Amino acid sequence: MIHSAKRFLLSGAMAVIWMLAASLHAAPPNIVLIISDDQAWTDYGFMGHAEIETPRLDKLAGESLVFPRGYVPSSVCCPSLASLVTGLYPHQHKITSNDPPLGGAKGPARYQTAAFKQGREKMASQLEQVATLPKLLAGHGYLSFQSGKWWQGHFSRGGFTHGMTTGQRHGDAGLEIGRKTMRPIHDFIATAKREEKPFLVWYAPLMPHDPHTPPADLLAKYRETTASIHVARYRAMVEWFDRTCGELLDDLDEQGVAENTIVVYLCDNGWIQNPGSPHPPLRSKMTQYDAGLRTPIMIRWPGKIEPVRRDKPVTSVDLMPTLLKAVGVPVPAGLPGIDLTDAAAVDGREFIPGACFTHDAVDLDVPASSLRYRWITDGRHKLIVPHAANVAGGKVEFYDVVADPHETSNLAPEAPPSMAGMRAALDAWWNP
């Protein structure tokens, strides 16, 4: 009996040792970032839109940890994407705007001026001065692939080992992804498999961003849902983007990597289509309102992250520490985000802040010079504070974004009790 007990204990101990050894030698998870461009937080099936269909993202949502009340810190793509890849707010990484100071130059010709080229170079060098997700992963054996939107010069300047963009505004050849082909991502994943390397994919297509040129079948479908051709084109672009997401997710399955791949979805900034014109949008992109700032954020990792919907406010700045912790890479000191898989941390945080800036920067070294609005939300209420230097006559705004999700009734003149506390928290975050 004693010998049997010893054998049992020994076999149990060996099993534990074997499991620990197996876990230590488990392949690090891959990461796929899916980033849509100019899409309203309302415009998905899983977010309740009555006409727009997004079956592949709906399915992904059902398999993911979903935060329907996610935010990006700024409502235009260049600073939003820079915050995603660095885990820092725009005033911290200093990329606050889409373009550098242009001295009053107008039209497409301004992108050929010496001032523009020098400014873009400065912005790319600012990114190089901080840690990025691809850089940190590269130090732990990861390959990384950039496709789609990328503003900060050649893809390698962000730390990507592979990519499509070579340095032009928006992303030059990278913008072919999704609209023309998905093949480069397939080939990159095949390369990473062949080299037995974990990988990161950055899929940030110019979709549903204009030009709104959807496939004929989708345009015909959405022409039946609206009298506006511009709205129909936009809605068709949203579903076309959804189709490309399906192609990417199917490719993960077909190449046998889906089970060990973390898939993240979010949008870089919002959009409300103008029914009377292809552009500009209505009260969304470039504004301080939820229609420009809010996005669902979701994370899928089969068998590791429980699929659940959490109605707590979170921010894209949280994704950097979340992903680094998930893959076992040390998180740099000073990052302001939290691990979104840590329910206690998510529940314990009171506020999500952010800031909106001028489209063209005023001074690339002084973030406050381009500031237009700071904002902060607790998930129920939202405070917006204009920066007097760039918003003449601006008024403080305060909304109940649950009862009034489109921010139509400014409660600030009534000075609700919670407003003062939120203002103090906003100033504690950043007071220029």
Care to give the gist of this entry?
33% of the residues lie in helices and 16% in strands. It has 432 residues and is an alpha/beta fold.
Main attributes?
432 residues, alpha/beta, four-stranded antiparallel β-sheet, 13 helices, disordered N terminus
Could you give the count of β-strands? Answer: 13
Structural Rg: 23 Å
Low-confidence parts = 1-11, 13-24
Shape: globular
Chain-averaged pLDDT: 94
- Beta-strand level of the residues, as a percent range? 15-25%
- SSE run: HEHEHHHHEEHEHHEHEEEHHEEEEH
Distance between the termini: 75 Å
Structural class label: alpha/beta
- Major pleated sheet: 9 strands, mixed
Q: Number of helical runs?
A: 13
Oligomer: single chain
Helix percentage range: 25-40%
Please characterize this protein's 3D structure.
With 432 residues, the chain is of the alpha/beta class. It is 33% helix and 16% strand. It contains 13 helices and 13 strands. The protein has helices at residues 2-24, 55-62, 77-86, 90-93, 114-128, 133-138, 183-194, 216-223, 229-254, 290-293, 319-327, 343-348, 417-429, and strands at residues 30-36, 65-71, 143-148, 162-163, 199-204, 261-267, 294-300, 308-309, 314-315, 352-357, 371-377, 381-386, 397-400. Strands 1, 2, 3, 4, 5, 6, 7, 8 and 9 form a 9-stranded mixed β-sheet that branches. A 4-stranded antiparallel β-sheet has the order 10-11-12-13, covered by helices on one side. Strand 11 and strand 12 form a beta hairpin. It is globular and about 60 Å long. Mean pLDDT is 94; it is low at 1-11 and 13-24.
